[in-house]
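User: These chains co-purify. Model them together.
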Amino acid sequence: SFRPLGEKPLSDMAKLLKNSETALLHAASAPNGTATLLSLAASLEISAHTLGIVSMLNAAAAKSDAGLDMATAISAVLQLGDSEQLQFAPAQTATLAGHLRDIMVELQQPRLAIAPLQAAVCKVAGARPLITPMHAMLFQCCLLANNPAAAVPVLERDAHDVDPALTGMTIRDFLLWRYYGGLINIARKRYAEAAEMLLAALTAPSMVTNAIVVAAWKKWALLGLLREGAVPQLPKWTSPAVSRTAKQEGGAYQDLATAYAGKSATVMSETVAKHRAVFAEDENLGLVKLVVEAQTKRNVLRLTQTYITLSLADIASNVGLPTAEAAELAILRMVDAGEVFAEMDGSKGMVRFLEDPQQFRSAATVARLDAHIAAATALGERVAATCAEVSKSKKYLGRLYHRTDLQRYGGGGVPGEEDDEIGPLMPPEPSPPGFMLYQA
Amino acid sequence: MSVNASGQDPFDVEAVASNYSSHAKVDHLLYIAKASKDKDLRAEALRQALEEAKQAGNLAHVRAIASAGYGEPDAEWETAAEAQAQQHQQKLEADLATSKSNMVKESVRMAHRDLGDFFYKIGDLQNAFKSYVRMRDYCSTPEQIIAMCLAVIKVGFEINNLVHVSNYVQKAEQVPDVAEDAVVTSKLRSAAGLSMLKTKKYKAAAQKFTEVFEEMGISYNDVVAPQDVATMGALCSLATLTRPEMRERLMENIHFREYLESAPQVREIVHAFYSSRYTACLEGLEALRPALTLDMHLAPHVESLYSAIRSRALIQYTTPFRTVHLPTMAAAFGTTVGELQRELAGLIVSNQIAARIDSDAGALYSHHTDQRAATYHFALKAGDDYLRNTKALLLRANLQKHNFMQTAGPQPRSSGGGAGGG
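Assistant: Joint model of the two components:
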């Protein structure tokens, strides 16, 4: 039996629940244990006894083949439970959410998990820019349910802190958060944002390699081809394990990159055909198709750098298309999509390339610049805050003043006034505000 | 004796050979024989080569000519020459040993030099090289050092060791007061130019050749003839120098003028290029081509130099104009409009011409990048990059703060709680 809340601090409740873990698991293993626990949980008021319900459901789900009943119960506690209590036990909440995800995926009803997972994110993160394990689960369900739009509010919510004490996050959750997030953005055709997310997964600190990173690299490479015409270099702080794996596993994709650079559409389609099975298994055929189209577009754009007018036949041969008609079609599509500005003289089969009439003169450009400046300022403040936090940390100061005689300064005062006596380890300028020396 | 080579001005083997002395003569003749497709020309070249080689007593060359399949190997001559050489070699080596034991620096130097000269004469280039190099430690005066360097350089070219050539050129240039001797300086610069040409450093070669003084004249024709200085210098200059450099080094350079006089065809080409008479220039180059493909130093570089000169001509043609009428330009360059468009497209893509082709109207319009658009594009991109990189950095810092690192093995969730939302 549980005492009503409000009388004792949550920490007591948490301790009690922790100590009861074994008992709960035992209860779950008993015959009909799941049903017992479920009905027990149902008998409690959700918002008042959220923590308790979470413990019981976790125990039940851990032991048995959970079904729709379990899912319903979990959904209820995630959507109706008390935020404060959920925030108190983020790891258990995440485990519970994971169970819900597992059940709905198994039952092939991922759609039904979306709302509860959204709720879980909001309740655990609150107003803070936290990343939770439920982020990745939500994105996964949205992808499986073919509803990327449902992920957008959480996707675009500011989140940059993984603090495990507040979120129960693990490195795997992080990788999946970025990977599935990337996939959602690919589905939304936001290729720049997708590439950014996948790169975060690739550059996460790592001693070993794993399947998520390999899959992320393949998609990231294709996005690079799509957007820049080449597979970009991994930044130099990428873990060597990742760079190595990229080389080992990326053969088909490197081939594609080489074919792309060669500008010939024929060679490109031959390369695609050759590695079709690999691309299909990696579920990248859609992106590969986009890359093939991008090659033609890039070739046409290259022509606009050299020619003012050019015949369709010449365009076709320059770009690697089989006929003038194919070239005409490609150009029409590009003009439609605003990717190129051109006029066609059908009678002569001549194309005239034009300048972008709006080149950076529109209100949209001004708005974009303004947004950039605002974002950069905000980000700059975050950087300054992080810098200040690090400068004040004991660990940092300990290293900095490792060799100096701290007693020389006593308390207070700005260091650096006796520079020659400190030696090579000097504090960086300017000194952080409110700086006080203390014994390391 | 001149031999007609396919309807153009007959290629005069003897005239070409007479530009050179010593080994250079035979080497040039041997190359002509190797490169030419004209049977008669080949025979003539080999005949002259054999005559010269026998006269010089160069065993290696005689053997080379025999193996090129010319004439009857003169066994009698060879045996006699070999015996004589053996004898001579033994004597010289004895002299060297004596000098060494007497430890008189000057005698040792001369002994090495004599051995070097001997080996060189009979065509044993490797040993000649070694002997000349060994002179180094025994030279006392600047003149001796220079003589030693020049000898090493000459053999260096013949054994195609260009690294040594450029080392010894440098050594010689560091000898005090060498700059006062116009002939020696010119020889060293010609040698430098030739070695740059061979390593495809055409611009450096152009600079070296156009810094040669007329005093050298034919005195270096055991390595390069004045015609070579002119031809190599001019072609490399046309291929690589800017117009002001060309004016300074080719047109207004009184020293180089002497050399151009010795190669009138080249002189005409240079003048035509400089005065923008492209048809005349290109025709002159084509007329010169057969002779150049038979030249042992220039032959491997003819294609690259010619296409570089052609590109420069195209660029020079288009630079002053806003609009260029392509059919006229094509006629000047002896090509079709279609082919010309291809060449121009290549130059535009490699950013050597700032223009756009209007293939419908058959014209080229000069085109300069819209700086304003470029600036906006750059600014927006810089903003994007900063935001992206900084966000990524902060995220990574956060991961490191919480010790997030992918390791082998499963990582369970930390049983949270305690810190709470308070």
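Confidence is low (pLDDT under 50) at residues 410-440 of chain A.
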